[in-house]
């Protein structure tokens, strides 16, 4: 331990702590911009400077380790002057665009400018006038707003091992750009949106589709039907001033009805359906010598990654569409028919924790209903914005149940939102199908938690199945390299592109730190445990779907509507 | 030589990527995109990083340009000595503006920072060979050497 004094307060902190950490320990917040709690220290913005006794130069609190007897002052006039000047310099080439900005109200630079009372900037405003990148349906870049902190590069390279972003040129000419200085769509970007979480400002964000939704709701000739992904509810509360997990499901549904949705259904329904299709596909591969290990296919960021970096392993991917797309193809066929609604009037909306889902919905092959299966994808953040605009008081809304035929779900579907959830849900069903015995304990706890890679061997009445679970694409890469080398011991691998699974998806409320993601995972398993039905094959509406329409898992209709195939992306720059 | 062979020559050299880029640029007068992507593969780094290296040094160009690269120093001493007139003469002679290449792919015109020959300003270099005390009249002769 090392004894230091921060603004006159004595504290002892572990060896190797930084000034920033020591200050936090005594309850003093030192401002930061390039610092990110889950990333390596970059120390390139200098907003965090402090005075250290005996040092003529100011020190960066995020990178400077403390030493025995160190005396630090975090807010002397000299320090404040320096921070102000640094901010003024950053702002002198930053567009003064807060009122139109996607991060208005949730921007680290805006907050710092307010905190440091920036008024008359002495430096002349000179914006570089760089072009916006609107090349993808999911993620945009607005390089003029970039403060060159490089947090996005860390997210893309270290967490995701995609390396779609890098720095071009140097000095005042330098800029963060997609590979080869081109557009995102030509880079290996998988549209996971983790760079959006990392970015302190509005230089990277999701392409918003709010206007499309408003137009559909305003159109009297359309019937607007929505699905909600399992990870959305518990994080959405964070957008509307509630604690994680505190927004009750049926209050959320009531809110959507107020916004003007005609029918509110649930992606959980097709998550349960996915388990039946994918579980049976696994059993079929196991018994007929199919390609193994089989990989899950519900995370579109992961699908993009596999198509980009592991095109030789596409046969290992389950042919099951993601729950979003299964929902999309059923809502304009089975459901519309059952409800006596003309399918061409249905506008199929999905509310997702994910930015890559916007890209997935726009894939040309996703039209097996005869129409585009999913018309509009909104992120949790976008629906949060609509809720804030609506002026609704959620504490006073009368709860409202889901609509029928694609609204029922089990706990197995709920846990799809967390890393390991699909595996656990699949095992709950596969176990009972194979052994014909009832599970005494549905909890496969090895599959839970934030560890990067988890594995287990499951005994299905004598048949041993080895499974692995990975979240983030850098962890996925480890398992994929094993498979490519012919050394994978597994039969079944679950991959989620985002840290923590969908609860940490690129479309979720901006979260800088993994502690928030871990909190959301807790809320997911609470919800699972609170539900009467916890196995996908017990979902009553899924039973009706098979009885009346699909007839059997992996049957003719399933293949037509619920399964797909993948394409190597042939990106030239990896 | 094909860029793949050039890169292969430097594959085991520490810091070989920059060396390879120099050699490629000597051959092609710029770094073609495919060459940067190939170098990334050979040196085991993401293409985004290889591109970062290629753009970090102003000496490298990632845009295709004429074979003979004429650079004119734009630092203050050369500027005062009449670099402007030399620029005008170069542009007139070649029929292009600074930063561009002739349609026949023979010449490229670029600005450079001080090349350390301030005793004989203005200075231009052609493919790194310096010419001193350049005047508009001399420009015509110099270009003729490379035609
Ligand atoms: S990035 Fe932040 S500071 Fe910049 S315009 Fe947007 S809200 Fe304002
Ligand atoms: S969306 Fe994901 S893959 Fe694309 S640049 Fe951002 S972090 Fe990288
Ligand atoms: S895009 Fe955002 S995260 Fe990336 S360097 Fe710029 S400001 Fe930082
Ligand atoms: S936060 Fe310390 S230098 Fe950027
Ligand atoms: S200023 Fe031109 S060579 Fe030095």
Please specify the SSE layout and strand pairing:
The complex is a heterodimer of chains A (574) and B (147).
Chain A: E1 2-6, E2 9-13, H1 19-25, E3 49-52, E4 59-60, E5 70-73, H2 77-92, H3 108-115, E6 139-141, H4 151-159, E7 165-168, E8 175-178, H5 194-198, E9 204-206, H6 210-218, E10 223-228, H7 232-239, H8 249-259, E11 263-264, H9 267-288, E12 294-295, H10 300-309, H11 323-339, E13 346-352, H12 356-361, E14 376-379, H13 380-390, H14 411-414, H15 421-435, E15 453-460, E16 463-471, H16 473-484, E17 492-496, H17 514-530, H18 540-550, H19 556-561
Parallel strand pairs in A: 1-5, 10-11, 10-13, 12-17, 13-14, 16-17
Antiparallel strand pairs in A: 1-2, 3-4, 3-5, 6-9, 7-8, 15-16
Helix pairs in contact in A: 7-13, 9-11, 9-15
Chain B: H1 3-10, H2 16-28, H3 33-43, H4 47-56, E1 68-73, H5 76-80, H6 83-94, E2 107-112, E3 124-126, E4 129-131, H7 136-146
The structure holds iron/sulfur cluster (3 copies) and FE2/S2 (inorganic) cluster (2 copies).
Keyphrases for this structure?
heterodimer; A: about 575 residues; alpha/beta; Ubiquitin-like (UB roll); Alpha-Beta Plaits; 3 domains; five-stranded mixed beta sheet; about 35% helix; globular; B: about 150 residues; alpha+beta; Glutaredoxin; 2 domains; 4 strands; about 50% helix; binds FE2/S2 (inorganic) cluster
């Amino acid at each position: 331990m090392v004894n230091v004094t921060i603004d006159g307060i004595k504290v002892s902190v572990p060896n190797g702590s930084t000034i920033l950490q020591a200050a936090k320990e005594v309850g003093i917040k030192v401002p930061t911009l390039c610092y990110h709690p889950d990333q390596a220290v970059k120390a390139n913005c200098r907003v965090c400077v402090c005075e250290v006794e005996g040092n003529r130069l100011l020190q960066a609190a995020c990178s400077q380790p403390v030493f025995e007897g160190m005396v630090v002052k975090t807010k002397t006039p000299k320090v404040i002057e320096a921070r102000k000047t640094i901010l003024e310099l950053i702002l002198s080439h930053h567009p003064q665009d807060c009122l139109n900005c996607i991060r208005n109200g949730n921007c680290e630079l805006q907050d710092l400018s307010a905190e440091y009372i920036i008024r008359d900037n002495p430096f002349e405003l000179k914006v570089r006038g760089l072009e916006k990148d609107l090349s993808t349906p999911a993620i945009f870049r607005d390089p003029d707003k970039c403060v060159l902190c490089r947090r996005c590069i860390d997210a893309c390279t270290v967490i995701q091992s995609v390396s779609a972003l890098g720095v071009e040129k140097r000095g005042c000419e330098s800029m963060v750009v997609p590979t080869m200085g081109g557009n995102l769509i030509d880079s290996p970007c998988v549209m996971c949106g983790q760079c959006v979480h990392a970015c302190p400002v509005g230089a990277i964000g999701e392409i918003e589709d709010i206007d499309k939704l408003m137009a559909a709701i305003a159109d009297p000739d359309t019937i607007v039907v929505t699905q909600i992904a399992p990870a959305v509810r518990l994080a959405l509360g964070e957008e509307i001033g509630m604690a994680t997990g505190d927004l009750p499901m049926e209050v959320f549904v009531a809110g959507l009805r107020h916004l003007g949705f005609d029918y509110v259904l649930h992606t959980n329904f097709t998550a349960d359906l996915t388990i039946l299709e994918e579980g049976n596909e696994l059993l079929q591969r196991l018994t007929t010598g199919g390609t193994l290990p089989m990989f899950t296919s519900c995370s579109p960021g992961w699908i993009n990654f596999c198509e980009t970096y592991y095109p030789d392993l596409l046969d290992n991917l389950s042919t099951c569409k993601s729950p979003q797309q299964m929902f999309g193809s059923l809502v304009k066929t089975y459901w519309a028919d059952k409800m006596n609604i003309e399918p061409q009037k249905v506008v199929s909306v999905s509310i997702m924790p994910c930015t890559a889902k916007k890209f997935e919905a726009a894939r040309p092959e996703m039209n097996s209903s005869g129409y585009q299966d999913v018309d509009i994808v909104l992120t949790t953040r976008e629906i949060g914005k609509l809720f804030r605009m609506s002026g609704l008081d959620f504490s006073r809304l009368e709860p409202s149940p889901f609509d029928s035929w694609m609204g029922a779900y089990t706990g197995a579907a709920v846990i799809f939102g967390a890393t390991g959830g699909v595996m656990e849900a699949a095992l709950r069903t596969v176990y009972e199908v194979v052994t014909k015995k009832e599970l005494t304990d549905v909890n496969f706890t090895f599959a839970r938690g934030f560890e990067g890679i988890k594995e287990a061997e499951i005994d299905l009445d004598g048949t041993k199945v080895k499974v692995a679970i990975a979240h983030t694409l850098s962890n996925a890469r480890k398992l994929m390299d094993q498979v490519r080398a012919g050394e994978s011991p597994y039969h079944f691998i679950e991959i989620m592109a985002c840290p923590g699974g969908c609860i940490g998806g690129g479309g979720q409320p901006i979260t800088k730190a993994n502690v928030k993601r871990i909190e959301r995972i807790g809320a997911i398993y609470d919800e699972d445990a609170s539900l009467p039905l916890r196995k996908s094959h017990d979902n009553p509406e899924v039973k009706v779907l098979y009885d009346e329409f699909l007839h059997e898992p992996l049957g003719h209709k399933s293949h037509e509507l619920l399964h797909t195939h993948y394409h190597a992306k042939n990106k030239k720059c990896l | 030589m094909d860029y793949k062979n050039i890169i292969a020559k430097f594959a085991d050299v520490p810091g070989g990527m920059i060396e390879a880029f120099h050699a490629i640029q000597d051959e092609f007068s710029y770094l073609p995109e495919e060459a940067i992507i190939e170098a990334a593969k050979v040196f085991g780094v993401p293409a985004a990083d290889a591109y970062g290296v290629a753009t970090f040094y102003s000496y490298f160009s990632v845009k295709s340009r004429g074979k003979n690269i004429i650079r004119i120093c734009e630092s203050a001493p050369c500027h005062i000595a009449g670099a402007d007139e030399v620029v005008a003469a170069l542009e007139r002679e070649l029929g292009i503006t600074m930063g561009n290449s002739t349609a026949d792919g023979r010449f490229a015109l670029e600005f450079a920072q001080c090349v350390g020959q301030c005793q004989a300003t203005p200075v231009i270099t052609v493919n790194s060979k310096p010419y001193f005390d350049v005047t508009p009249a001399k420009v015509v002769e110099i270009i003729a050497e490379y035609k």
